Amino acid sequence: MKILVTGGGGFIGSHLVDLLLKREHVVIVLDNFSTGKRSNLPLEHPQLKIIEGDIRDTDTVFQAAEGCDAIVHLAAVASVQASVDEPIGTHEVNLVGTVKLLEAAKQHSIKRFVFASSAAIYGNTEVMPVSESTPLSPLTPYAADKLASEYYIDFYRRQYGLSPAVFRFFNIFGPRQDPSSPYSGVISIFMQRTINDQPMTVFGDGEQSRDFVYVADLVQLLADAVEKQNPNHLPMNVGNGTQTNLNQLLDLIRDFSGKKLAVSYEESRLGDIKHSLADNRAVCEKMDYHRQYPVALGLRITYDWYLTKSESSI
Ligand code: NAD
Ligand code: UD2
Asked: Is the CB of 198 under 6 A from ligand 2?
């Protein structure tokens, strides 16, 4: 198949590109490299074409999609904080950009459309675990745009016969995740700080938990969704149904790094949720999803990757 991957130069996108190429597909990456990096991609691969361009640009999007059999739409301003700081700019990417991709799919009669939604649309829910029928409460521009994107995708399904697969990602982690912002994923921050022997901060008592998903498990699911003919068209949670709290994460990192970590505990962040856990029965049943990387294994691989990266930059 020929597959357009928007945001293919990013953390998740680049892992997906690697897997799609391994499965012998032709891959077109459309990315403006605002947060993604060319160095995440196998630039010399003969089956890979990279278009440096913006999903806000209609012509670019239409040209990129031409001749494709499927679209995986991952490009977004993925930082919730950025959406709060700059709602107009992020909206143009996160919602209007999605609509442009949908129009391109319609124009070129592309049916398969895989979309990265987010658990952020559930907001600060007390419900545990969170199932797809849990009331939605998007609390930020980022979450509102993800939810509106879901509604647009469903409109194109009903109106034009689009065959979408929509996934609500929980906390994804792994190699290539950017640790540079205070709002980056906690695992990427802890990894980098451990390797650099820097102190790290836990906001709260460290007992808050998340449903962490190793990136290789996620991209296997996304690649399967591209290839499958009749997946569930309803949005599906992507979590593992397991909780890991920050103190447990730190214990694991201590174990395999052999380092004595400098950890300080500070006030919880405003609006932080205590626990987040996915009910993932839908994705397991409909997509035959099963986790291959328990958190401890994924962490270990991720740590080794950050270690190699820090050694190569010395
Ligand atoms: P990322 O920032 O590494 O990837 C986003 C990619 O989109 C980058 O390569 C960036 O350069 C590109 N991009 C941004 N704006 C663009 C534009 N206007 N035109 C073209 N390309 C543009 O983030 P990620 O973590 O890999 O996220 C991928 C997707 O998954 C996003 O849609 C994000 O919202 C979603 N998601 C991620 C998580 C997570 O835990 N990482 C959780 C929920 C949802
Ligand atoms: C995720 C998203 C966020 C938003 C939110 C919605 C990421 C990176 N963040 O936030 O954008 O969608 O879900 O619910 O995907 N922490 C520390 N020390 C640090 C960094 C974080 O203690 O240096 C804590 C943080 O306060 C939180 C936990 O670690 O309690 C996880 O933080 P996160 O930003 O990795 O993920 P989350 O689920 O809070």
From this structure: no
